[in-house]
């Protein structure tokens, strides 16, 4: 299993780069991402979360199908993803993230999106998604843009999360899967 990079690590704030079919060991990397996502009990994982600043994400939202029927059989790999349209209508749901263990907050996001990407065989795709599948894609897509779901919560909520975020950034969290905390500042002890 690949370790998950935690809040506070600079790679999570970088805008990820597009890749080409000759990216080294891509098929192996995709398999490792699936394994890491499943072993850490996530439904999506973006390459920046494993320390790679590339536009690659994997999603398997099918475990959410009993609550959100549109997630039935929704499993995908997206390479070089770019959201091209977002609806004005929004929905608010609670989100969590493997890079922010133990934090769950309500996030408002567009209800529908259109996204272009390459599948794992580098075949171009343009698809429209709505509801919870659109939410999961947007959450993972944010990682490609150097954003986290906590960037979408109010200033008040962020201030209430400050202590939890500081603990995560310093590696003082134990989510049950391997992690990489952010670089430690001089004088900071774990």
Describe the structure.
This protein has 190 residues and is α+β, with helices and mostly antiparallel strands. The protein has helices at residues 26-39, 131-144, 155-169, and strands at residues 4-5, 44-46, 56-60, 75-86, 90-96, 104-110, 112-118, 124-130, 179-180. Strands 2-3-4-7-8 form a five-stranded antiparallel β-sheet, with helices on both faces. Strands 1-9 form a two-stranded parallel sheet. A two-stranded antiparallel ribbon has the order 5-6. The relative contact order is 0.21.
Set down the secondary structure blueprint.
Layout: E1 4-5, H1 26-39, E2 44-46, E3 56-60, E4 75-86, E5 90-96, E6 104-110, E7 112-118, E8 124-130, H2 131-144, H3 155-169, E9 179-180
Parallel strand pairs: 1-9
Antiparallel strand pairs: 2-3, 3-4, 4-7, 5-6, 7-8
Radius of gyration: 16 Å
Number of strands: 9
| Tally of individual helices | 3
Per the principal axes of the C-alpha atoms, what is the gross shape?
globular
Beta-strand portion reads: 25-35%
By helix and strand content, what is the structural category? Answer: alpha+beta
In percent, how helical is the residue content?
A: 10-25%
Low-confidence stretches: 186-190
- Whole-Å distance between the termini? 24 Å
Q: What is the element string, with H for helices and E for strands?
A: EHEEEEEEEHHE
The order of strands across the largest sheet is: 2-3-4-7-8
Largest sheet data: 5 strands, antiparallel
Mean pLDDT: 94
Summarize the structure.
It is built from three helices and nine strands. It has 190 residues and is α+β, with helices and mostly antiparallel strands. Strand 5 (90-96) and strand 6 (104-110) form a beta hairpin.
